[in-house]
Amino acid sequence: MAKSTQRPVGRPRSEDVRDRVVGAAEELLAESGYLGMTMDEIAVRAKVSKKTLYRWWPHKAAVTAEVLVARAEVRTIPDLGDTRAELLVLFGYIDELTRARDTFTRLCLVEAAAEEAGVMQSFLDVVQRRRDQARAVVQRGIARRDLPADIDADALLDLWNGYFVYRRSFRPAPVHQDTVRQLVDLALAGQVPRLPDESRDPRAGDA
Known about the structure:
Elements: H1 15-36, H2 39-46, H3 50-56, H4 60-71, H5 83-97, H6 100-113, H7 117-143, H8 153-170, H9 177-188
Helix pairs in contact: 1-2, 1-4, 1-6, 4-6, 4-7, 5-7, 5-9, 6-7
């Protein structure tokens, strides 16, 4: 049976307690990983009673979900009036997201999600908010006619994120700024995935 990640109803949780628990859990995750971390250790390091800890977080998967949400910074990409400049800012955010710190977060997430589906949902919620900000940049580019109206924004963003993740996690290699600029320029030149043509007979295939 899946564990509940719902918080108890009643007196509001102390933000000081939350900050201490999140900070303690983040340190323990870095030291021992998800599998090595225990609720007892979190309580001791956060200097809270086990009763208080279990009142708000019924298990360590729930604490890990809290760490993921607290760590996730969802920043708005400003309207600079320049699609190329905004896409470069977007690439900078993708760069930061896929650095070693967040790679470690993903590893902890995999371990935690195996125990509690709510952890994965917390992470997916953060990913969705970040994706909404990135999609807004693409939409502004379309409105300025700098990007094709039929651009497949999700496919493009998946490709860009995948490039960084692969370089950082599976084939360690530097990400050169010249390559980033070339990818942006390719998008502005219309070399991007396109949405399916709804008028085409789906039975026709790619022939």
